[in-house]
Write a structure and sequence with these properties.
Layout (H helix, E strand, L loop, with lengths): L1 E3 L15 H15 L7 E7 L7 H14 L4 E6 L6 H4 L8 H5 L6 H7 L1 E2 L5 E4 L12 H19 L4 E7 L7 H6 L4 E7 L5 H13 L4 E8 L1
Parallel strand pairs: 1-8, 2-6, 2-7, 3-5, 3-6, 7-8
Antiparallel strand pairs: 4-5
Helix pairs in contact: 1-2, 5-6
């Protein structure tokens, strides 16, 4: 699938709902939702680029906005602890988030709720990357599964409609984080920036995700 943008820096809410920019994201989310099974109350998704791409946080934000505005309760998680960017996209100050959650001795639903922040989009909450140092990205390998399960539990406890937890991660080739998250979520989608991501990078990232046995369900080409 291809998404055309205006440099991939503007949020979906800045565009008319009938624009091609908006339509691409709503279609993207519709395709994600098409693969859901009826039995599940909360779905989990990872969006990750092969290599560094400055517009990745905006892509994740826009998919989350499309989900929420389509009537799906949504939690957006900034799991890019190396170069977080989602707080800025939503006009928020830096605050506690995922890295702080992972540093807790025990991850409970109450603790997760304390770290979630409302956005200006109804039904969309943000769990930012947090205040911990970038070196603490290694914490992902120890407590991430418990965090994902508890975040999903929080969503299911507060909503009656099926919801989604969307993770935005660091680039696949930058380290093990994306592959690790991909093994713990329902779907993984690789985001490729046209003319910025090389064919070699895309192939290597796909192979790395497949070796980790992630459920790689698609590749999105960002037509910039």
């Amino acid at each position: 699938m291809s998404i055309r943008s205006q440099e991939q820096v503007a949020l979906l809410t800045d565009y008319d709902t009938g624009s091609a920019y908006s339509a691409a994201y709503y279609t993207f989310f519709a395709n994600i939702r098409f693969n859901w099974t009826k039995e599940q109350c909360v779905h989990t998704l990872l969006l990750c680029p092969p290599a560094m791409y400055t517009g990745q946080a905006t892509v994740a934000a826009n998919v989350a906005i499309a989900a929420a505005k389509s009537g799906t309760p949504t939690i957006l998680v900034d799991a890019d602890l190396r170069a977080p960017g989602l707080e800025r996209r939503f006009g928020m100050e830096k605050g506690e988030g995922l890295s702080d959650l992972l540093a807790k001795d025990m991850i409970t639903a109450q603790v997760v709720r304390q770290h979630l922040r409302d956005t200006f989009i109804p039904s969309l909450r943000l769990l930012s990357a947090g205040m911990a140092a970038e070196d603490d990205a290694l914490l992902l390998s120890e407590k991430l599964q418990a965090a994902i399960q508890t975040i999903s539990l929080c969503l299911s406890e507060t909503e009656t409609a099926p919801g989604i937890v969307i993770f935005n991660s660091s680039p696949v080739l930058a380290g093990p984080d994306a592959s690790l998250i991909g093994t713990l979520v329902e779907q993984t989608i690789l985001t490729i920036a046209k003319d910025r991501t090389t064919r070699t990078q895309a192939k290597q990232a796909q192979e790395q995700l497949e070796r980790a046995h992630t459920n790689l369900v698609g590749i999105v080409i960002l037509d910039v």
